[in-house]
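Issue 218. Parser rejects a valid record. Input:
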Amino acid sequence: MSDSDQDVSASSSEPSSADDSPKKQSGYIGKRRTRSTRSGVRVADKVAQVLITLGGIGTIIAVSLVCVFLVYVVIPLFTSESLEAPKQVAVSTQVAPIHVASDEYLSIGWSISEQGLLHSFRIDSAEVLDTRSLFQAGRHPTAWSFSRDTGHLAFGFADGTVQLGNAEFITDFIADEDVPEDLKKLKPGEVGTFRDGIVQVTPENQFRYQKLEITLEDPVTVEADVPIELIDLSVSTNGEIFAVLTGDSELRLARVTRRKNLLTGKMTTRLREGKLDVALPEGAGKPKFLMLTGLGDSVALVWEDGRLLRYDSRNTTEPVFAEELSVTPDDAKVTALSFLVGKTSLVVGDSKGGVSVWFRIKPDNAETPDGAVLTMAHALPPGKAPVAALAPSTLSRLVAAGFKGGQVHLYHV
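Output the parser choked on:
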Protein backbone atom coordinates (compact mmCIF):
# COMPACT_ATOMS: atom_id res chain seq x y z
CA MET A 1 0.00 0.00 0.00
CA SER A 2 1.32 3.40 -0.89
CA ASP A 3 1.63 6.28 1.48
CA SER A 4 -1.14 8.22 -0.28
CA ASP A 5 -3.63 5.36 0.16
CA GLN A 6 -2.84 5.21 3.86
CA ASP A 7 -3.51 8.95 4.20
CA VAL A 8 -6.93 8.71 2.50
CA SER A 9 -7.93 5.71 4.56
CA ALA A 10 -6.95 7.43 7.74
CA SER A 11 -8.80 10.62 6.91
CA SER A 12 -12.03 8.80 5.99
CA SER A 13 -12.08 6.73 9.14
CA GLU A 14 -11.94 9.75 11.47
CA PRO A 15 -15.35 11.59 12.07
CA SER A 16 -15.45 15.32 11.40
CA SER A 17 -16.12 17.90 14.06
CA ALA A 18 -19.39 18.86 12.25
CA ASP A 19 -20.85 15.43 12.95
CA ASP A 20 -19.98 15.77 16.61
CA SER A 21 -22.13 19.03 17.09
CA PRO A 22 -24.98 19.32 14.48
CA LYS A 23 -26.72 22.77 14.15
CA LYS A 24 -30.59 23.26 14.30
CA GLN A 25 -31.81 24.64 10.97
CA SER A 26 -34.74 27.24 10.93
CA GLY A 27 -37.66 26.82 8.46
CA TYR A 28 -38.04 30.65 7.91
CA ILE A 29 -36.09 31.64 4.85
CA GLY A 30 -37.58 35.22 4.34
CA LYS A 31 -36.36 38.58 5.52
CA ARG A 32 -36.21 38.90 9.24
CA ARG A 33 -38.22 41.69 10.95
CA THR A 34 -36.08 44.45 12.25
CA ARG A 35 -38.77 46.90 13.51
CA SER A 36 -41.04 46.72 16.62
CA THR A 37 -44.77 47.69 16.85
CA ARG A 38 -45.26 51.32 17.73
CA SER A 39 -46.85 52.11 21.10
CA GLY A 40 -49.69 54.13 19.45
CA VAL A 41 -50.77 51.12 17.42
CA ARG A 42 -50.77 48.97 20.54
CA VAL A 43 -52.90 51.52 22.39
CA ALA A 44 -55.37 51.80 19.47
CA ASP A 45 -55.61 48.02 19.30
CA LYS A 46 -56.33 47.81 23.02
CA VAL A 47 -58.96 50.58 22.80
CA ALA A 48 -60.65 48.82 19.86
CA GLN A 49 -60.68 45.58 21.80
CA VAL A 50 -62.33 47.27 24.80
CA LEU A 51 -64.91 49.06 22.64
CA ILE A 52 -65.86 45.92 20.75
CA THR A 53 -66.23 44.06 24.03
CA LEU A 54 -68.39 46.81 25.52
CA GLY A 55 -70.48 46.96 22.32
CA GLY A 56 -71.13 43.25 22.44
CA ILE A 57 -72.08 43.39 26.11
CA GLY A 58 -74.29 46.44 25.48
CA THR A 59 -76.09 44.65 22.64
CA ILE A 60 -76.81 41.69 24.89
CA ILE A 61 -78.10 44.00 27.63
CA ALA A 62 -80.30 45.91 25.16
CA VAL A 63 -81.86 42.74 23.75
CA SER A 64 -82.42 41.46 27.29
CA LEU A 65 -84.15 44.71 28.30
CA VAL A 66 -86.40 44.51 25.23
CA CYS A 67 -87.36 41.00 26.31
CA VAL A 68 -88.06 42.23 29.85
CA PHE A 69 -90.19 45.09 28.48
CA LEU A 70 -92.24 42.74 26.27
CA VAL A 71 -92.85 40.42 29.22
CA TYR A 72 -93.85 43.44 31.35
CA VAL A 73 -96.34 44.57 28.70
CA VAL A 74 -97.85 41.13 28.15
CA ILE A 75 -98.27 40.15 31.81
CA PRO A 76 -101.40 42.36 32.33
CA LEU A 77 -103.16 40.39 29.59
CA PHE A 78 -103.18 37.38 31.91
CA THR A 79 -104.56 39.29 34.91
CA SER A 80 -108.13 40.37 35.63
CA GLU A 81 -109.23 43.78 34.37
CA SER A 82 -109.89 46.70 36.69
CA LEU A 83 -111.12 50.29 36.52
CA GLU A 84 -110.37 53.18 38.78
CA ALA A 85 -113.26 55.01 40.40
CA PRO A 86 -114.20 57.94 38.15
CA LYS A 87 -113.69 61.46 39.38
CA GLN A 88 -116.89 63.46 39.15
CA VAL A 89 -117.04 67.21 38.80
CA ALA A 90 -120.20 69.31 38.69
CA VAL A 91 -120.24 71.89 35.92
CA SER A 92 -122.72 74.68 36.58
CA THR A 93 -124.68 74.74 33.32
CA GLN A 94 -128.42 75.33 33.14
CA VAL A 95 -129.12 73.31 29.98
CA ALA A 96 -128.32 69.76 28.90
CA PRO A 97 -125.51 69.47 26.33
CA ILE A 98 -125.82 67.89 22.91
CA HIS A 99 -122.05 67.38 22.67
CA VAL A 100 -119.19 67.12 25.19
CA ALA A 101 -115.47 66.89 24.35
CA SER A 102 -112.04 67.75 25.74
CA ASP A 103 -108.49 68.41 24.64
CA GLU A 104 -106.05 65.52 24.29
CA TYR A 105 -104.49 66.24 27.70
CA LEU A 106 -107.85 66.16 29.51
CA SER A 107 -107.26 69.66 30.85
CA ILE A 108 -110.10 71.63 29.25
CA GLY A 109 -113.58 70.31 28.55
CA TRP A 110 -116.30 71.95 26.50
CA SER A 111 -119.94 71.42 25.69
CA ILE A 112 -122.58 72.84 23.36
CA SER A 113 -126.26 72.95 24.23
CA GLU A 114 -129.23 72.65 21.90
CA GLN A 115 -129.69 76.41 22.19
CA GLY A 116 -126.16 76.98 20.88
CA LEU A 117 -124.55 77.90 24.22
CA LEU A 118 -120.87 77.07 24.51
CA HIS A 119 -119.32 76.23 27.88
CA SER A 120 -115.61 75.58 28.39
CA PHE A 121 -114.38 74.47 31.79
CA ARG A 122 -111.44 73.02 33.67
CA ILE A 123 -111.76 69.27 34.02
CA ASP A 124 -109.84 69.07 37.31
CA SER A 125 -111.94 71.63 39.18
CA ALA A 126 -115.05 72.15 36.95
CA GLU A 127 -114.33 75.90 36.97
CA VAL A 128 -116.13 77.53 34.04
CA LEU A 129 -113.66 79.31 31.75
CA ASP A 130 -115.98 80.73 29.11
CA THR A 131 -119.71 80.87 28.40
CA ARG A 132 -121.11 82.39 25.22
CA SER A 133 -123.63 81.88 22.47
CA LEU A 134 -122.35 80.65 19.13
CA PHE A 135 -125.29 81.99 17.13
CA GLN A 136 -127.37 85.12 16.88
CA ALA A 137 -130.20 85.64 19.35
CA GLY A 138 -133.17 83.39 18.59
CA ARG A 139 -131.20 81.28 16.12
CA HIS A 140 -131.05 77.68 17.37
CA PRO A 141 -129.77 74.64 15.44
CA THR A 142 -132.21 71.89 14.49
CA ALA A 143 -129.50 69.38 13.51
CA TRP A 144 -125.80 69.01 14.25
CA SER A 145 -122.74 66.91 13.51
CA PHE A 146 -119.40 66.82 15.35
CA SER A 147 -116.18 65.22 14.16
CA ARG A 148 -114.30 63.42 16.94
CA ASP A 149 -110.85 63.55 15.37
CA THR A 150 -110.69 66.69 13.20
CA GLY A 151 -112.70 69.18 15.24
CA HIS A 152 -115.06 70.05 12.36
CA LEU A 153 -118.62 71.10 13.19
CA ALA A 154 -121.81 71.37 11.16
CA PHE A 155 -125.15 72.86 12.20
CA GLY A 156 -128.47 72.87 10.34
CA PHE A 157 -131.22 75.41 11.00
CA ALA A 158 -134.96 75.77 10.54
CA ASP A 159 -134.51 78.31 7.73
CA GLY A 160 -132.77 75.71 5.52
CA THR A 161 -129.24 76.99 6.09
CA VAL A 162 -126.13 75.12 7.17
CA GLN A 163 -123.24 76.59 9.11
CA LEU A 164 -119.84 74.90 9.20
CA GLY A 165 -117.08 75.52 11.69
CA ASN A 166 -114.07 74.19 13.51
CA ALA A 167 -113.12 73.68 17.16
CA GLU A 168 -109.44 73.67 18.12
CA PHE A 169 -107.24 74.38 21.09
CA ILE A 170 -104.84 77.30 20.72
CA THR A 171 -101.50 77.07 22.54
CA ASP A 172 -99.19 80.01 23.23
CA PHE A 173 -96.47 80.99 25.68
CA ILE A 174 -96.86 84.02 27.94
CA ALA A 175 -94.01 86.38 28.78
CA ASP A 176 -93.08 86.43 32.47
CA GLU A 177 -94.03 90.10 32.82
CA ASP A 178 -97.59 89.35 31.63
CA VAL A 179 -98.19 86.58 34.16
CA PRO A 180 -100.16 87.57 37.29
CA GLU A 181 -98.31 87.27 40.60
CA ASP A 182 -100.51 84.45 41.90
CA LEU A 183 -99.71 82.31 38.85
CA LYS A 184 -95.97 82.86 39.24
CA LYS A 185 -96.16 80.76 42.40
CA LEU A 186 -97.15 77.69 40.40
CA LYS A 187 -94.68 74.82 40.29
CA PRO A 188 -93.85 72.87 37.11
CA GLY A 189 -96.81 70.77 36.11
CA GLU A 190 -99.36 72.80 38.07
CA VAL A 191 -102.30 74.51 36.34
CA GLY A 192 -103.95 77.86 36.91
CA THR A 193 -106.80 79.82 35.34
CA PHE A 194 -105.87 82.71 33.08
CA ARG A 195 -108.41 84.76 31.10
CA ASP A 196 -110.66 82.27 29.26
CA GLY A 197 -108.15 79.40 29.36
CA ILE A 198 -105.53 77.78 31.53
CA VAL A 199 -101.83 78.28 32.19
CA GLN A 200 -99.51 75.39 32.95
CA VAL A 201 -95.89 75.68 34.02
CA THR A 202 -93.59 73.54 31.88
CA PRO A 203 -90.44 71.77 33.20
CA GLU A 204 -88.46 74.66 31.64
CA ASN A 205 -90.43 77.12 33.85
CA GLN A 206 -92.32 78.54 30.88
CA PHE A 207 -95.97 79.56 31.16
CA ARG A 208 -97.95 77.70 28.51
CA TYR A 209 -101.38 79.16 27.78
CA GLN A 210 -104.15 77.08 26.24
CA LYS A 211 -107.73 77.92 25.33
CA LEU A 212 -110.60 76.68 23.18
CA GLU A 213 -111.21 78.50 19.91
CA ILE A 214 -114.38 77.87 17.86
CA THR A 215 -114.72 79.55 14.48
CA LEU A 216 -117.90 79.47 12.40
CA GLU A 217 -118.25 80.29 8.73
CA ASP A 218 -121.10 82.26 7.20
CA PRO A 219 -124.31 80.24 6.75
CA VAL A 220 -124.98 78.71 3.34
CA THR A 221 -128.49 78.00 2.04
CA VAL A 222 -129.32 74.40 1.19
CA GLU A 223 -133.06 74.88 0.66
CA ALA A 224 -134.73 78.13 1.64
CA ASP A 225 -137.28 78.02 4.49
CA VAL A 226 -137.21 74.23 4.72
CA PRO A 227 -135.84 73.01 8.08
CA ILE A 228 -132.78 70.78 8.25
CA GLU A 229 -133.75 67.70 10.27
CA LEU A 230 -130.58 65.58 10.10
CA ILE A 231 -127.01 66.35 9.07
CA ASP A 232 -123.65 64.59 8.92
CA LEU A 233 -120.26 65.97 7.86
CA SER A 234 -117.16 64.20 6.55
CA VAL A 235 -113.71 65.60 5.83
CA SER A 236 -111.27 63.90 3.46
CA THR A 237 -108.34 64.82 1.27
CA ASN A 238 -110.86 65.96 -1.33
CA GLY A 239 -112.37 68.49 1.06
CA GLU A 240 -115.57 68.67 3.08
CA ILE A 241 -118.83 67.04 2.13
CA PHE A 242 -122.07 66.99 4.09
CA ALA A 243 -125.44 65.30 3.76
CA VAL A 244 -128.74 66.59 5.11
CA LEU A 245 -132.31 65.40 5.31
CA THR A 246 -134.75 68.28 4.93
CA GLY A 247 -138.26 68.67 6.30
CA ASP A 248 -139.77 67.82 2.92
CA SER A 249 -137.98 64.43 2.92
CA GLU A 250 -135.25 65.33 0.48
CA LEU A 251 -131.78 63.88 0.85
CA ARG A 252 -129.25 66.51 -0.19
CA LEU A 253 -125.50 66.21 -0.57
CA ALA A 254 -123.10 69.08 -1.00
CA ARG A 255 -119.36 69.24 -1.58
CA VAL A 256 -117.81 72.41 -0.20
CA THR A 257 -115.48 74.64 -2.18
CA ARG A 258 -113.99 77.90 -0.91
CA ARG A 259 -112.62 80.95 -2.67
CA LYS A 260 -110.72 83.79 -1.05
CA ASN A 261 -111.09 87.36 -2.27
CA LEU A 262 -107.52 88.61 -2.75
CA LEU A 263 -108.61 92.22 -2.21
CA THR A 264 -110.81 91.90 0.88
CA GLY A 265 -109.48 88.61 2.26
CA LYS A 266 -113.06 87.34 2.73
CA MET A 267 -113.67 83.63 2.22
CA THR A 268 -116.68 82.64 0.12
CA THR A 269 -118.20 79.16 0.51
CA ARG A 270 -119.90 77.48 -2.43
CA LEU A 271 -121.69 74.15 -2.69
CA ARG A 272 -121.78 71.58 -5.48
CA GLU A 273 -125.09 69.91 -4.68
CA GLY A 274 -127.19 66.92 -5.51
CA LYS A 275 -130.56 65.83 -4.17
CA LEU A 276 -132.89 62.85 -4.09
CA ASP A 277 -136.45 62.41 -2.85
CA VAL A 278 -136.59 59.82 -0.07
CA ALA A 279 -139.45 57.34 -0.32
CA LEU A 280 -140.32 56.98 3.37
CA PRO A 281 -141.47 53.47 4.33
CA GLU A 282 -145.19 53.38 5.11
CA GLY A 283 -145.89 53.88 8.80
CA ALA A 284 -142.20 54.19 9.71
CA GLY A 285 -142.16 57.94 10.22
CA LYS A 286 -138.97 59.98 9.87
CA PRO A 287 -135.50 58.39 10.25
CA LYS A 288 -133.60 58.97 13.50
CA PHE A 289 -130.04 58.89 12.16
CA LEU A 290 -128.18 60.04 9.05
CA MET A 291 -124.69 58.60 8.57
CA LEU A 292 -122.23 59.70 5.87
CA THR A 293 -119.09 57.64 5.22
CA GLY A 294 -115.64 59.17 5.49
CA LEU A 295 -115.16 59.47 1.73
CA GLY A 296 -118.69 60.68 1.20
CA ASP A 297 -119.39 57.82 -1.20
CA SER A 298 -122.27 56.29 0.76
CA VAL A 299 -124.98 57.69 3.02
CA ALA A 300 -127.44 55.80 5.22
CA LEU A 301 -130.77 56.74 6.78
CA VAL A 302 -131.57 54.64 9.87
CA TRP A 303 -134.90 54.31 11.64
CA GLU A 304 -135.40 53.46 15.30
CA ASP A 305 -136.86 50.05 14.40
CA GLY A 306 -133.59 49.08 12.68
CA ARG A 307 -134.62 49.79 9.09
CA LEU A 308 -131.70 51.17 7.02
CA LEU A 309 -131.81 52.74 3.58
CA ARG A 310 -128.42 53.15 1.93
CA TYR A 311 -127.67 55.49 -1.00
CA ASP A 312 -124.77 55.49 -3.40
CA SER A 313 -123.29 59.00 -3.33
CA ARG A 314 -120.08 58.54 -5.29
CA ASN A 315 -121.45 61.13 -7.67
CA THR A 316 -122.35 63.96 -5.31
CA THR A 317 -124.67 65.64 -7.79
CA GLU A 318 -126.64 62.45 -8.55
CA PRO A 319 -127.09 60.18 -5.51
CA VAL A 320 -129.07 56.97 -6.14
CA PHE A 321 -130.80 54.42 -3.92
CA ALA A 322 -128.63 51.35 -3.26
CA GLU A 323 -130.27 48.93 -0.81
CA GLU A 324 -132.59 48.41 2.16
CA LEU A 325 -131.92 46.15 5.15
CA SER A 326 -132.43 45.79 8.90
CA VAL A 327 -129.55 46.21 11.34
CA THR A 328 -131.31 44.94 14.51
CA PRO A 329 -133.28 41.85 15.52
CA ASP A 330 -137.01 41.99 14.82
CA ASP A 331 -138.08 43.24 18.26
CA ALA A 332 -135.05 45.44 19.06
CA LYS A 333 -134.67 49.17 18.49
CA VAL A 334 -131.61 51.18 17.53
CA THR A 335 -130.51 53.21 20.57
CA ALA A 336 -127.00 54.30 19.54
CA LEU A 337 -125.14 54.58 16.25
CA SER A 338 -121.58 55.56 15.42
CA PHE A 339 -118.75 55.04 12.95
CA LEU A 340 -115.39 53.57 13.84
CA VAL A 341 -112.23 55.48 12.97
CA GLY A 342 -112.19 56.23 9.25
CA LYS A 343 -116.01 56.32 9.07
CA THR A 344 -116.23 53.05 7.15
CA SER A 345 -117.47 50.53 9.73
CA LEU A 346 -120.85 51.29 11.32
CA VAL A 347 -121.43 50.30 14.98
CA VAL A 348 -125.04 49.68 16.01
CA GLY A 349 -126.24 49.50 19.62
CA ASP A 350 -129.77 48.27 20.31
CA SER A 351 -132.38 48.14 23.07
CA LYS A 352 -131.47 44.53 23.96
CA GLY A 353 -127.85 45.37 24.71
CA GLY A 354 -126.58 44.08 21.39
CA VAL A 355 -123.59 45.69 19.68
CA SER A 356 -122.87 44.86 16.05
CA VAL A 357 -120.45 46.16 13.42
CA TRP A 358 -121.41 46.56 9.77
CA PHE A 359 -119.39 47.44 6.68
CA ARG A 360 -119.63 47.13 2.91
CA ILE A 361 -118.33 44.16 0.96
CA LYS A 362 -118.36 43.52 -2.79
CA PRO A 363 -119.68 40.04 -3.60
CA ASP A 364 -119.82 38.84 -7.19
CA ASN A 365 -123.64 38.72 -7.25
CA ALA A 366 -124.26 42.21 -5.83
CA GLU A 367 -127.14 44.00 -7.55
CA THR A 368 -126.51 47.44 -6.06
CA PRO A 369 -125.35 50.44 -8.16
CA ASP A 370 -121.95 50.50 -6.46
CA GLY A 371 -121.55 46.71 -6.41
CA ALA A 372 -121.42 46.65 -2.61
CA VAL A 373 -123.73 45.39 0.13
CA LEU A 374 -123.76 46.33 3.79
CA THR A 375 -123.06 43.24 5.89
CA MET A 376 -122.82 42.51 9.61
CA ALA A 377 -119.17 41.62 10.16
CA HIS A 378 -119.09 41.33 13.97
CA ALA A 379 -121.64 40.57 16.67
CA LEU A 380 -119.85 41.76 19.80
CA PRO A 381 -120.58 40.34 23.29
CA PRO A 382 -123.83 42.01 24.42
CA GLY A 383 -124.58 43.88 27.60
CA LYS A 384 -127.37 43.32 30.10
CA ALA A 385 -129.17 46.61 29.41
CA PRO A 386 -129.94 48.79 26.39
CA VAL A 387 -126.99 50.55 24.83
CA ALA A 388 -127.04 54.24 25.81
CA ALA A 389 -123.95 55.56 24.02
CA LEU A 390 -121.06 54.57 21.75
CA ALA A 391 -117.64 56.24 21.82
CA PRO A 392 -115.11 55.08 19.19
CA SER A 393 -111.39 55.69 19.43
CA THR A 394 -109.88 58.27 17.08
CA LEU A 395 -106.69 56.23 16.61
CA SER A 396 -107.62 52.54 16.50
CA ARG A 397 -110.56 50.16 16.06
CA LEU A 398 -111.56 50.42 19.70
CA VAL A 399 -115.07 51.37 20.74
CA ALA A 400 -116.58 51.86 24.19
CA ALA A 401 -120.25 51.06 24.73
CA GLY A 402 -122.15 52.53 27.68
CA PHE A 403 -125.25 50.72 28.88
CA LYS A 404 -128.23 52.11 30.79
CA GLY A 405 -127.46 49.76 33.66
CA GLY A 406 -124.23 51.69 34.32
CA GLN A 407 -121.87 49.20 32.67
CA VAL A 408 -119.21 50.08 30.15
CA HIS A 409 -117.80 47.56 27.70
CA LEU A 410 -114.60 48.21 25.75
CA TYR A 411 -114.35 46.32 22.46
CA HIS A 412 -111.51 45.87 20.01
CA VAL A 413 -113.15 45.21 16.66
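Fixed in the parser; the record now loads. Confidence is low (pLDDT under 50) at residues 6-19.
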